[in-house]
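Take one protein record:
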Amino acid sequence: MEMSGRDMTNDSPPTRSHPATRSDVARLAGVSTAVVSYVVNNGPRPVATATRARVLAAMSELDYTPNAVARALRLRRAQAVGLVVPDVSNTYFGALARELSNRAFEAGFALLLGDSDNDIERERAQVDSLISHRIDGLILVSLDPGSDAEVGGTPTVYLDQRDQPGQRTVVVDNLHGARLGVEHLIEHGRQRIALLGGIVGSPGADARHQGWETALADAGLPHGEDLVQRSEFSRAAGHEAAIALLSQPEPPDAVFVASDVQALGLLAAARELGISVPAQLAVVSFDGTDDARYSDPPLTAVEQPVDEIASTALRAIIAPAESLHEIVDVGLVVRRSCGCSEPA
Protein backbone atom coordinates (compact mmCIF):
# COMPACT_ATOMS: atom_id res chain seq x y z
CA MET A 1 0.00 0.00 0.00
CA GLU A 2 1.32 3.41 -0.98
CA MET A 3 2.20 5.82 1.84
CA SER A 4 0.95 9.34 1.33
CA GLY A 5 3.78 11.86 1.09
CA ARG A 6 3.31 15.57 1.61
CA ASP A 7 2.85 17.88 -1.38
CA MET A 8 6.36 19.08 -2.09
CA THR A 9 5.52 21.31 -5.04
CA ASN A 10 4.68 24.47 -3.11
CA ASP A 11 7.14 24.27 -0.22
CA SER A 12 10.50 25.97 -0.26
CA PRO A 13 13.47 23.73 0.50
CA PRO A 14 14.27 23.88 4.23
CA THR A 15 17.34 25.77 5.34
CA ARG A 16 19.97 23.22 6.35
CA SER A 17 23.13 23.54 8.43
CA HIS A 18 24.62 20.32 7.01
CA PRO A 19 24.42 18.31 3.77
CA ALA A 20 21.26 16.24 3.40
CA THR A 21 21.43 12.62 4.48
CA ARG A 22 19.50 9.52 3.48
CA SER A 23 17.41 9.93 6.65
CA ASP A 24 16.48 13.48 5.60
CA VAL A 25 15.30 12.23 2.21
CA ALA A 26 13.31 9.41 3.81
CA ARG A 27 11.63 11.80 6.24
CA LEU A 28 10.66 14.24 3.50
CA ALA A 29 9.37 11.53 1.16
CA GLY A 30 7.50 9.69 3.89
CA VAL A 31 9.34 6.40 3.39
CA SER A 32 11.98 4.33 5.18
CA THR A 33 15.72 4.79 4.62
CA ALA A 34 15.72 1.30 3.08
CA VAL A 35 13.33 2.47 0.35
CA VAL A 36 15.63 5.44 -0.37
CA SER A 37 18.51 2.96 -0.70
CA TYR A 38 16.49 0.82 -3.14
CA VAL A 39 15.79 3.88 -5.29
CA VAL A 40 19.40 5.06 -5.22
CA ASN A 41 20.82 1.62 -6.02
CA ASN A 42 18.00 0.41 -8.30
CA GLY A 43 17.34 -2.54 -6.00
CA PRO A 44 17.63 -5.09 -4.66
CA ARG A 45 13.87 -4.72 -4.05
CA PRO A 46 11.39 -3.08 -6.44
CA VAL A 47 9.86 0.28 -5.56
CA ALA A 48 6.44 1.42 -6.75
CA THR A 49 6.50 4.12 -9.43
CA ALA A 50 4.71 6.72 -7.29
CA THR A 51 7.00 6.02 -4.32
CA ARG A 52 10.10 6.27 -6.50
CA ALA A 53 8.84 9.63 -7.81
CA ARG A 54 8.42 10.95 -4.25
CA VAL A 55 11.92 9.84 -3.29
CA LEU A 56 13.47 11.40 -6.38
CA ALA A 57 11.55 14.64 -5.75
CA ALA A 58 12.79 14.72 -2.15
CA MET A 59 16.36 14.11 -3.31
CA SER A 60 16.05 16.98 -5.74
CA GLU A 61 14.51 19.33 -3.18
CA LEU A 62 17.21 18.59 -0.62
CA ASP A 63 20.02 18.61 -3.21
CA TYR A 64 20.96 15.14 -1.99
CA THR A 65 23.93 13.56 -3.78
CA PRO A 66 24.12 10.04 -2.36
CA ASN A 67 27.32 8.91 -4.01
CA ALA A 68 29.44 12.05 -3.72
CA VAL A 69 30.95 11.20 -0.34
CA ALA A 70 31.41 7.53 -1.12
CA ARG A 71 33.06 8.42 -4.42
CA ALA A 72 35.50 10.78 -2.66
CA LEU A 73 36.30 8.06 -0.15
CA ARG A 74 36.87 5.41 -2.82
CA LEU A 75 39.40 7.66 -4.52
CA ARG A 76 41.40 7.32 -1.33
CA ARG A 77 40.46 3.63 -1.03
CA ALA A 78 38.58 4.48 2.16
CA GLN A 79 37.10 1.69 4.21
CA ALA A 80 36.62 2.90 7.78
CA VAL A 81 36.86 5.71 10.31
CA GLY A 82 37.99 5.12 13.90
CA LEU A 83 36.49 6.55 17.07
CA VAL A 84 38.14 6.40 20.51
CA VAL A 85 36.17 7.49 23.58
CA PRO A 86 36.98 7.36 27.32
CA ASP A 87 34.03 5.16 28.31
CA VAL A 88 31.48 3.72 25.90
CA SER A 89 29.15 2.86 28.82
CA ASN A 90 28.73 6.61 29.39
CA THR A 91 25.39 7.34 27.72
CA TYR A 92 26.73 10.44 25.96
CA PHE A 93 29.60 8.56 24.31
CA GLY A 94 27.26 5.73 23.40
CA ALA A 95 24.91 8.20 21.69
CA LEU A 96 27.86 9.82 19.89
CA ALA A 97 29.13 6.45 18.66
CA ARG A 98 25.69 5.49 17.36
CA GLU A 99 25.22 8.81 15.53
CA LEU A 100 28.67 8.58 13.95
CA SER A 101 28.04 4.96 12.97
CA ASN A 102 24.78 5.90 11.26
CA ARG A 103 26.32 8.80 9.37
CA ALA A 104 29.36 6.73 8.41
CA PHE A 105 27.07 4.02 7.04
CA GLU A 106 25.16 6.58 4.98
CA ALA A 107 28.48 7.83 3.62
CA GLY A 108 29.54 4.33 2.61
CA PHE A 109 32.08 3.24 5.19
CA ALA A 110 32.36 1.62 8.61
CA LEU A 111 33.03 2.96 12.09
CA LEU A 112 35.59 1.16 14.26
CA LEU A 113 35.19 1.88 17.98
CA GLY A 114 37.88 1.95 20.65
CA ASP A 115 37.18 2.35 24.39
CA SER A 116 40.07 3.71 26.46
CA ASP A 117 38.32 2.87 29.78
CA ASN A 118 39.54 6.20 31.24
CA ASP A 119 43.16 5.10 30.90
CA ILE A 120 45.68 7.17 28.90
CA GLU A 121 47.95 4.23 28.12
CA ARG A 122 44.99 2.21 26.88
CA GLU A 123 43.89 5.21 24.81
CA ARG A 124 47.29 5.29 23.09
CA ALA A 125 47.12 1.55 22.46
CA GLN A 126 43.64 1.90 20.94
CA VAL A 127 44.84 4.71 18.67
CA ASP A 128 47.86 2.66 17.56
CA SER A 129 45.65 -0.35 16.85
CA LEU A 130 43.19 1.64 14.74
CA ILE A 131 45.96 3.37 12.78
CA SER A 132 47.55 -0.01 12.07
CA HIS A 133 44.31 -1.00 10.32
CA ARG A 134 44.91 1.82 7.82
CA ILE A 135 41.73 3.68 8.71
CA ASP A 136 40.92 6.75 6.66
CA GLY A 137 40.37 9.02 9.64
CA LEU A 138 40.32 9.13 13.42
CA ILE A 139 37.90 10.89 15.76
CA LEU A 140 39.33 11.08 19.27
CA VAL A 141 38.01 12.13 22.67
CA SER A 142 41.34 12.20 24.47
CA LEU A 143 41.98 12.00 28.20
CA ASP A 144 45.10 14.11 27.69
CA PRO A 145 44.47 17.70 26.50
CA GLY A 146 48.14 17.93 25.52
CA SER A 147 48.05 14.76 23.45
CA ASP A 148 49.61 14.83 19.99
CA ALA A 149 48.72 11.26 19.11
CA GLU A 150 51.02 9.70 16.53
CA VAL A 151 48.64 9.10 13.63
CA GLY A 152 51.07 8.83 10.72
CA GLY A 153 49.28 11.34 8.54
CA THR A 154 45.80 9.93 9.19
CA PRO A 155 43.27 12.80 9.26
CA THR A 156 42.35 13.26 12.93
CA VAL A 157 39.64 15.29 14.63
CA TYR A 158 39.71 15.89 18.39
CA LEU A 159 36.37 16.31 20.13
CA ASP A 160 37.78 18.35 22.98
CA GLN A 161 39.86 21.46 23.64
CA ARG A 162 43.44 21.07 22.44
CA ASP A 163 46.69 22.58 23.62
CA GLN A 164 48.54 21.67 20.43
CA PRO A 165 48.52 24.10 17.47
CA GLY A 166 47.23 23.00 14.08
CA GLN A 167 45.00 20.18 15.35
CA ARG A 168 41.47 19.85 13.97
CA THR A 169 38.94 20.20 16.76
CA VAL A 170 35.17 20.12 17.21
CA VAL A 171 34.30 21.41 20.67
CA VAL A 172 30.97 22.11 22.33
CA ASP A 173 30.74 25.46 24.11
CA ASN A 174 31.29 23.96 27.56
CA LEU A 175 31.85 27.27 29.31
CA HIS A 176 28.71 28.91 27.93
CA GLY A 177 26.68 25.77 28.59
CA ALA A 178 27.77 25.62 32.23
CA ARG A 179 26.88 29.27 32.66
CA LEU A 180 23.43 28.61 31.20
CA GLY A 181 22.81 25.83 33.70
CA VAL A 182 24.06 27.73 36.74
CA GLU A 183 22.25 30.93 35.80
CA HIS A 184 19.03 28.94 35.57
CA LEU A 185 19.55 27.70 39.13
CA ILE A 186 20.21 31.28 40.25
CA GLU A 187 16.91 32.32 38.64
CA HIS A 188 15.21 29.80 40.92
CA GLY A 189 16.59 31.74 43.89
CA ARG A 190 19.16 29.13 44.93
CA GLN A 191 21.95 30.65 46.99
CA ARG A 192 24.40 27.85 47.62
CA ILE A 193 25.05 26.16 44.28
CA ALA A 194 27.64 23.40 44.30
CA LEU A 195 29.56 21.77 41.45
CA LEU A 196 29.85 18.05 40.97
CA GLY A 197 32.53 18.26 38.30
CA GLY A 198 34.82 16.04 36.30
CA ILE A 199 38.45 15.21 37.06
CA VAL A 200 40.78 18.11 36.24
CA GLY A 201 41.90 17.82 32.61
CA SER A 202 39.19 15.33 31.59
CA PRO A 203 37.16 16.19 28.48
CA GLY A 204 35.08 19.31 29.08
CA ALA A 205 35.65 19.32 32.85
CA ASP A 206 37.81 22.44 33.18
CA ALA A 207 35.61 24.65 30.99
CA ARG A 208 32.45 23.51 32.79
CA HIS A 209 34.12 24.31 36.11
CA GLN A 210 35.05 27.75 34.80
CA GLY A 211 31.50 28.41 33.62
CA TRP A 212 30.10 27.44 37.04
CA GLU A 213 32.59 29.68 38.83
CA THR A 214 32.08 32.67 36.53
CA ALA A 215 28.28 32.55 36.76
CA LEU A 216 28.37 32.48 40.56
CA ALA A 217 31.04 35.19 40.81
CA ASP A 218 29.02 37.47 38.53
CA ALA A 219 25.96 36.93 40.75
CA GLY A 220 27.92 37.60 43.97
CA LEU A 221 27.30 34.05 45.24
CA PRO A 222 29.84 31.77 46.97
CA HIS A 223 32.00 29.66 44.66
CA GLY A 224 34.77 28.28 46.87
CA GLU A 225 36.34 24.83 46.84
CA ASP A 226 34.08 23.76 49.72
CA LEU A 227 31.28 23.69 47.14
CA VAL A 228 33.21 21.50 44.67
CA GLN A 229 33.47 17.73 44.39
CA ARG A 230 35.21 16.10 41.41
CA SER A 231 34.84 12.56 40.12
CA GLU A 232 35.10 10.43 37.00
CA PHE A 233 32.19 10.64 34.58
CA SER A 234 30.32 7.60 35.91
CA ARG A 235 27.25 6.80 38.00
CA ALA A 236 29.23 5.16 40.81
CA ALA A 237 31.79 7.96 41.04
CA GLY A 238 29.03 10.58 40.92
CA HIS A 239 27.22 8.82 43.75
CA GLU A 240 30.32 8.73 45.94
CA ALA A 241 31.12 12.41 45.30
CA ALA A 242 27.50 13.41 45.91
CA ILE A 243 27.42 11.67 49.31
CA ALA A 244 30.44 13.73 50.37
CA LEU A 245 28.92 16.94 48.97
CA LEU A 246 25.46 16.52 50.47
CA SER A 247 26.74 15.38 53.88
CA GLN A 248 28.53 18.65 54.62
CA PRO A 249 27.48 20.63 57.72
CA GLU A 250 26.18 23.34 55.37
CA PRO A 251 24.96 21.40 52.32
CA PRO A 252 24.12 23.08 49.00
CA ASP A 253 20.58 23.90 47.94
CA ALA A 254 21.44 23.25 44.28
CA VAL A 255 24.04 21.33 42.28
CA PHE A 256 25.31 21.81 38.76
CA VAL A 257 26.57 18.41 37.58
CA ALA A 258 29.14 18.07 34.81
CA SER A 259 27.53 15.00 33.19
CA ASP A 260 24.24 13.11 33.13
CA VAL A 261 25.82 9.90 34.40
CA GLN A 262 27.20 11.66 37.48
CA ALA A 263 23.79 13.25 38.00
CA LEU A 264 22.18 9.80 38.17
CA GLY A 265 24.57 8.97 41.00
CA LEU A 266 23.69 12.24 42.72
CA LEU A 267 19.94 11.54 42.50
CA ALA A 268 20.51 8.14 44.10
CA ALA A 269 22.59 9.74 46.88
CA ALA A 270 19.89 12.34 47.54
CA ARG A 271 17.27 9.59 47.91
CA GLU A 272 19.48 7.70 50.34
CA LEU A 273 20.00 10.83 52.44
CA GLY A 274 16.32 11.75 52.43
CA ILE A 275 16.86 14.91 50.38
CA SER A 276 13.97 15.82 48.10
CA VAL A 277 14.75 16.86 44.50
CA PRO A 278 13.89 19.56 43.56
CA ALA A 279 12.17 20.82 46.77
CA GLN A 280 15.35 20.77 48.87
CA LEU A 281 17.94 20.34 46.15
CA ALA A 282 17.68 21.70 42.59
CA VAL A 283 19.77 19.89 39.98
CA VAL A 284 20.96 20.76 36.47
CA SER A 285 23.27 18.45 34.52
CA PHE A 286 25.35 18.61 31.33
CA ASP A 287 24.90 16.33 28.28
CA GLY A 288 21.16 16.00 27.71
CA THR A 289 21.13 12.27 26.94
CA ASP A 290 18.34 9.76 27.46
CA ASP A 291 19.62 9.45 31.03
CA ALA A 292 18.36 12.99 31.65
CA ARG A 293 15.01 12.40 29.97
CA TYR A 294 14.15 9.19 31.81
CA SER A 295 15.66 9.85 35.27
CA ASP A 296 13.47 10.40 38.33
CA PRO A 297 12.83 13.28 38.38
CA PRO A 298 13.71 14.07 34.75
CA LEU A 299 16.85 16.19 34.64
CA THR A 300 17.02 19.74 33.41
CA ALA A 301 20.15 19.55 31.27
CA VAL A 302 22.51 21.47 29.04
CA GLU A 303 22.08 19.44 25.86
CA GLN A 304 24.93 18.65 23.49
CA PRO A 305 23.74 18.42 19.85
CA VAL A 306 25.15 14.98 19.10
CA ASP A 307 23.94 15.03 15.49
CA GLU A 308 25.77 18.29 14.73
CA ILE A 309 28.94 17.15 16.50
CA ALA A 310 28.97 13.89 14.55
CA SER A 311 28.27 15.44 11.16
CA THR A 312 30.89 18.18 11.63
CA ALA A 313 33.56 15.69 12.74
CA LEU A 314 32.81 13.29 9.89
CA ARG A 315 32.93 16.04 7.28
CA ALA A 316 36.32 17.09 8.64
CA ILE A 317 37.54 13.53 8.12
CA ILE A 318 36.13 13.17 4.61
CA ALA A 319 37.43 16.52 3.39
CA PRO A 320 40.21 17.45 5.83
CA ALA A 321 41.12 21.12 5.95
CA GLU A 322 44.48 22.55 6.92
CA SER A 323 42.96 23.66 10.19
CA LEU A 324 39.57 23.44 11.83
CA HIS A 325 38.34 24.72 15.15
CA GLU A 326 34.58 24.39 15.30
CA ILE A 327 32.71 25.47 18.44
CA VAL A 328 29.25 23.90 18.64
CA ASP A 329 26.59 25.72 20.63
CA VAL A 330 24.47 24.06 23.31
CA GLY A 331 21.03 24.71 24.76
CA LEU A 332 19.19 24.23 28.04
CA VAL A 333 16.37 21.69 28.11
CA VAL A 334 14.09 22.36 31.09
CA ARG A 335 12.57 19.45 33.00
CA ARG A 336 11.58 18.93 36.65
CA SER A 337 14.87 18.50 38.55
CA CYS A 338 15.44 22.26 38.80
CA GLY A 339 11.96 23.05 40.13
CA CYS A 340 10.31 23.95 36.83
CA SER A 341 7.17 22.29 35.56
CA GLU A 342 8.18 20.02 32.71
CA PRO A 343 6.79 21.15 29.33
CA ALA A 344 4.41 18.80 27.55
Summary: The chain has three domains: 22-63, 78-171+306-328, 174-305. Residues 243 and 273 are 8 Å apart (CA to CA). The longest strand covers residues 80-85. Residues 78-171+306-328 form a domain with the Rossmann fold fold (CATH 3.40.50.2300).
